[in-house]
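Researcher: Good morning. I'm working through a list of sequences from a screen, and I'd like to move beyond sequence-only analysis. For each chain I'm collecting a predicted structure so we can compare shapes side by side. This is the next one on the list. No need for commentary yet; just the structure.
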Amino acid sequence: MNAARASFSLVTAWELEAPLERVWDAIYRAEDWPRWWPYVERVVKLQEGDGNGVGAVRRLTWRTRLPYRITFDTRATRVEKPFRLEGEAMGELAGTGRWTLSHSGTVTTVRYEWNVRATKPWMARPVFEWNHNGVMRAGGEGLARHLGARLVQA
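Model: Good morning. Structure tokens for this chain:
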């Protein structure tokens, strides 16, 4: 398989002792991610969505665990507050992402499914997966700090 066209299906789960609504708000407000997610360098809203945010387009620039940056746009395709947020990625990564939130007692579970095609030569297995896993782990830890919550599992 050509590394420049490698496809990935990755799943991340975080469990936080935090109210569902607070976790949802932090994830939904992507422009604030650089405040708490160490690898997110910048998020710029390019287009407003409808009243729920469907159709909103954002440009995200991520640092990686390697000496590279990745920039791509996302378009929100589904928003079901406070349980589901889906989007389409376009640019240096192309594909779909889905945030699913649920709660049980005091614990909110965040599940992220990322089905993308890489467009840069270095984004080959296992490098891309290693990078993704570290970036997502840092996101869970940063979100817990941001919310003043305990990260039960990442």
